[in-house]
Amino acid sequence: MKRIDRIKKRIFEVEMVSPKEWWGQDETILTSEEIKKEPLVVRKALAVEYVMRNMPAKIKPDELIVGLANYASAGLGFEFPDYALPEEKEEGMRGAFTYKSVWGHHPGDYQKLLQSGLQGLRQEILEQMELECKKKEPQREKLDYYRAMIISLNAVRELAVRYSQLALKQAAKEREPARRKELLEISRICAKVPEQPAQTFHEALQSMFLFFCALHSSLEMVPIARTDQYFYPYYKRDIESGRITEEEAEELVGSWLAKFNERVQILPEYFDASHANAYDKGDGGNPDHFAASFAMENDQDYNFGTSANNFLLNMILGGCTPQGEDAVNDLTYLLIEQWNYLEAIMPVLSVRLNSKSPQKLYELCADILRKGGSGEPALYNDEVIIKGLTDLGIPLEEARDYSNDGCWEVLIPGRTNFGFEYIKVLQTLEYVLNRGASLIRKRQEAPDYGDPAQFKTYEEFYTVFMKCIHQKIIEILQNKLKYRDVRHKIAPSPLLSTIVSDCIQRGRDLSDHGARYNIYPLMVCELANCVDSLAVIKKLVYEDRICTMSEVTEAVRMNFEGKEDLRQMFINRVPKFGNDEPYVDGIAAKLLEDIRKEVSDITASMDIDDLYVGLGIATFETYMSIGHNIGASPDGRLSQEPVSSNYSPSIGMDLGGPTAAIKSITTPDLVPYFIGCPLDMQINYNEAQGDEGLKRMVALIKSFLELGGVILTITGTSEEDLLNAQKDPAKYRSLRVRMGGLSAYFVALPKEHQDLMIRKVKHGL
């Protein structure tokens, strides 16, 4: 067996089917009065130092890249030594924060790390400290922050030294000469990087991964951004000089990619939700903390484990350079091919495409998508996204260098502090129809605009609906401004901030106005179900007058009990979004344009400081749990049923096929929604085989891009395979399905979610 085969076998047959080790529970650094007197940010850095010195360290068979991250899971929580004092915890919780409230999502400037090393970063910090100290009145907070940064960087150096020594120790015991030589080389590399700049491809991979381990072991759930760009100079130099062969490069890449999957758990019986605290479970009212919803929703039996293997890891390849040239290179293909061979779910794979992208890249992506069940790579449209970024005010060269976060949202790597919130349009429609009350929670949650039967025209009804959305947007932005300066006071990120521009120059945390860009999109949620519901109300109540508004509100309040004939009329007599029907597509276009205008007008009227407020359309993988919190809707959806994922048609309502769906979703102008509005599409791989099938797949992808789509995901599988996987999961451990923001192993999902995926594949979306 080749090395990569042995590593893959170990991952699937050992790592993924064994209980995971949680380290850091009940640990604390608050062991002396001297430590307690330190500023909180310094105590956070001392906690990072404690972790780097004490967390488990292992070197596994065959691996060429070493490091064992104490991963934080978006679904199941995380552990970290306590560093906050009781009064600080109490103050933080007033804003719905704890010391674990690290949002993640922000890829660092890994290229800077590789070029400068820890020593270069440290020198830059010391120079800024010296400048600050020369001021007439130095800012104590800045000096404390610089000290925290240096403590954190020194801690990463200690982690690297631990691995260097461990490799030496194992080399001394190793009987196999070839492996002994590998261990000695690993020891040499870890003694050098990330402290010093990387010079070889192996050093670059190892330097980045050790820093990544330090971040993920310090609560930072960060993606890995444009790996084919910042690694390529080292790969190219080594290949051209003959330092390594193509086969050796494949082994290095495979070993590196495999490391991100060591925490993945495929057996639900080993999921452990006991590591989530109050923040992890979503308690508290701060809307800037969408990550809190993951664990809360995964506690539910119908959805448990959806995000258990979500570590917010995204790798994006291809695209263009900051100068606008094609950025695809040999490493782009090598990374895709090795990722595909591993059948991994981490990192989430994305590919940027544009008019200059090689045909070979289109065909490789199409071939993987039609054959596998991965739902990846997710495909990004450079032209639309770069235009959206520049319209938001991002300089063109930086816009061309865009990356994504841990799911798919667009940002500028190494320069961004990112957060978002939902605009829940179907939930808002429920409020209007139910006089401000939730049908599920049976409580008042929005203003009562009166009996919906009072509205004489659709325009009058729609105006009130938009009034409710207007109020929600104001609340979201007011809450963001209210709480945005609280997080760094309890959960700063001194280590990650060392590789985020312009934190060192400003002497501030990335979450405290340190990052160059603070991007905060509002994500329209539950769109297709809302649009279909508006179409029913517009056509059947106000145009055809087949039923009254009172009948509609009563039907949804009763969950259509005893009113199945009315429900079937709602489903069958009105066009549905996603079928190239101008009637309903026009409703979607108007709603999205009206929301864009509302956001634009509201932000113009508010003092939003340095926030870049963008737009997207999203549910991520939580479309089941989002639907679980909403009652029946006029589109015929029953109470607590799932909503449509991201920017996809409602489940089972896409009767016109993939082309019709693409034409529908590209009817609106999507440039304002460049942060992301993925169309999640399922295809039966039996219909995409052979050369003609590949050509059709490529044509489908290119049509999506040319018509102005933003992000496309395609899952190629069959209803038969999914049904067989339910019956015999051991034979289908590597079968993956796309879930809105990531891919998951099908057999690890609960039965309810498996059934939903089968239903989606059967209907095509």
From TrEMBL:
One of its GO terms (molecular function) is lyase activity. Gene3D superfamilies: 3.20.70.20. Keywords: Lyase, Organic radical, Pyruvate. Residues 645-765 form the Glycine radical domain. The modification Glycine radical is found at residue 741. SUPFAM superfamilies: PFL-like glycyl radical enzymes. Residues 2-638 form the PFL domain. This is Pyruvate-formate lyase. It comes from Diplocloster agilis.
